[in-house]
Each structure stands twice: as C-alpha cells, then as structure tokens.
Amino acid sequence: MPCITRFAPSPTGLLHVGNGYAALRCKQWAEQHRATMLLRIEDIDHTRCQPHFADAMLEDLQWLGLSWPEPVRKQSEHLADYQHALTRLRQMGVIYPCFCTRKSIQLELLRMGGAPHREDAASHYPGTCRHIPVTEQERRMATESSFAWRLDINRATAMVGEPVWFDEQGTPQRDTIPHDVVIGRKDIGVSYHLAVVVDDALQGISHVIRGEDLKESTAIHRLLQQLLGYPSPLYIHHPLLKNSAGERLAKRIGSTTLSSLRNMGVCPQRLRHYLLDGCDQLWPFNEGEDAAIIAMLGTPDKR
C-alpha cells in the first residue's frame, strides 16, 4: 500500500513559524519514506476561517519550498461527506443532541463541586443532556436555535471496544476519553474531530504526522474510525516549536508569521535548515525583531 500523509492547516490567520515547522516535519518524513504529502485546507468553521488566509497559506508554503499534488481538498467543499457520517452515527444511537451553553455547564460543574473555570466547560462536560428522552430531544431540536451533537463515549465503547491506536513502530497506544465530546454543531455542521476522520479515510491517509498538542485527540479519532468502519492510520506526534518563554507558538500570542519573514527578505533555504536541523524546538524571537532574525537566517543572495 502506498504511504500517504497530509499537512492540514486551518485558515483562521496567517501561518506562523510553528506551522511552518510542522509542515516541514511532515514533508521531511514523506521524503524519507518515499510517501506522498497532501495538503488539506481545514476550513469547515466558516465563523473563523477566511478565504484570504487560505490563499496566503499557499503562498507561504510555496515560498518555504513545499509542493503537493493537486487538487487541494477544502473541507468547505465536502460538507455532504461529513453530514453522511454524522447521520450514520445518529442511526447507530451513539450521539445525542446537547442543548447546554458554556455558562450552564459551568454552573452544573459548580453544583457538582467542580471548579467553574471557563475551560472546564469544554473539557469536563458532566453529561447533562445524555439521557433526555427522544421525544423531548426532537421537540427541543425543532424549537431551540442552537445545539451540539455529542458522542456518547460509554455507549460507543460498549459497541466497538476501547479505542487503540498505533505509533510508527506499531506499538499500541491507549488513552482515556474523559467526557462526551462535541462532534457536530448546528451552526457549522460537524466538528474538527469528525471531519478529519472522514477526510483521512477518503484520502487514504496511512500516516498522520502532527504536533504533540493533538495527541490527546487521537483516541477520539480512533473511536470514530471504529464506529464508521474506517481503517486507522499510524500516528506520529512530533514536539512543538516554542518561544523563549516556553510557550508553543500560536496565532493568538502573535507568533512570528511566515509572511513577515518573507516580506523582510529572509532566505527560505536558511529558514528550512534552521527549523529542521538547528532550532532544537526553540524559536527565540518575537515579532518585530527584524535585525536579529535576519542576522540568524540571512537574506536571499542578490547576485
């Protein structure tokens, strides 16, 4: 079987250096294993993704020296694939509509004696809507403006077993899924978890190379693969690029973008060499330190 991997960014902003590092790690693995690296644009969240960011992604990745087979799969063009999978899960009885807001989840966690922090609403769902009768579910879905589809972890694992996934060495890995995760929303259709599982199956992805921040999602993806009858890729989770403060690079903290480096004339060959061979997972610069970055990475040869 051919080896196929993918780099799958979301166009919610400009690519930063950490994104470039992840893309290069993926491409390097593909070259070492004579594999194909696909590019996928994960733009299913129309509330955050913007077409001009997708265009900028392509320019930045090409400037960095990457190439990929055409056509590029854009999630926004394949919504029917995800809805079909969601319908199958609903017919299996392993998902249920959740009408909770973030605030109501926080209040329920507080009532149960938990800490009512904002992040708890996303990571510690208490199962409030799990046992609503079907007739009541139908009534509320018809009358309420917003709801989510959650995967019933207990029912799903009772049906297909605990999720087991494999790393590149074929070593089995097991992780606990702590709560019923959201796999669909009324406003954007389906979540990242379901869309990425469908995409990987349809594109024949054999190996997933991605950052270790997504490792905790792998058990969710494997469980969905088992439910839908999809094969499981092998998973490789690489270290993240971090700044000098120990934070992983991210759009929300204003990490140095690839376009800013391109605009200041940084040599892409030197940048690739630094990220793959010399950085040791550290990007010790902040946005705007042009002189330091150019001194480290150099500018293109003008001769």
TrEMBL record:
<dbReference type="GO" id="GO:0005524">
    <property type="term" value="F:ATP binding"/>
</dbReference>
<feature type="domain" description="Glutamyl/glutaminyl-tRNA synthetase class Ib catalytic">
    <location>
        <begin position="5"/>
        <end position="275"/>
    </location>
</feature>
<keyword id="KW-0547">Nucleotide-binding</keyword>
<dbReference type="InterPro" id="IPR020058">
    <property type="entry name" value="Glu/Gln-tRNA-synth_Ib_cat-dom"/>
</dbReference>
<keyword id="KW-0479">Metal-binding</keyword>
<dbReference type="GO" id="GO:0006424">
    <property type="term" value="P:glutamyl-tRNA aminoacylation"/>
</dbReference>
<dbReference type="GO" id="GO:0004818">
    <property type="term" value="F:glutamate-tRNA ligase activity"/>
</dbReference>
<dbReference type="InterPro" id="IPR000924">
    <property type="entry name" value="Glu/Gln-tRNA-synth"/>
</dbReference>
<dbReference type="InterPro" id="IPR014729">
    <property type="entry name" value="Rossmann-like_a/b/a_fold"/>
</dbReference>
<keyword id="KW-0648">Protein biosynthesis</keyword>
<keyword id="KW-0436">Ligase</keyword>
<dbReference type="InterPro" id="IPR049940">
    <property type="entry name" value="GluQ/Sye"/>
</dbReference>
<comment type="similarity">
    <text>Belongs to the class-I aminoacyl-tRNA synthetase family.</text>
</comment>
<dbReference type="Pfam" id="PF00749">
    <property type="entry name" value="tRNA-synt_1c"/>
</dbReference>
<protein>
    <submittedName>
        <fullName>tRNA glutamyl-Q(34) synthetase GluQRS</fullName>
        <ecNumber>6.1.1.-</ecNumber>
    </submittedName>
</protein>
<keyword id="KW-0067">ATP-binding</keyword>
<dbReference type="GO" id="GO:0005829">
    <property type="term" value="C:cytosol"/>
</dbReference>
<keyword id="KW-0030">Aminoacyl-tRNA synthetase</keyword>
<keyword id="KW-0862">Zinc</keyword>
<dbReference type="InterPro" id="IPR001412">
    <property type="entry name" value="aa-tRNA-synth_I_CS"/>
</dbReference>
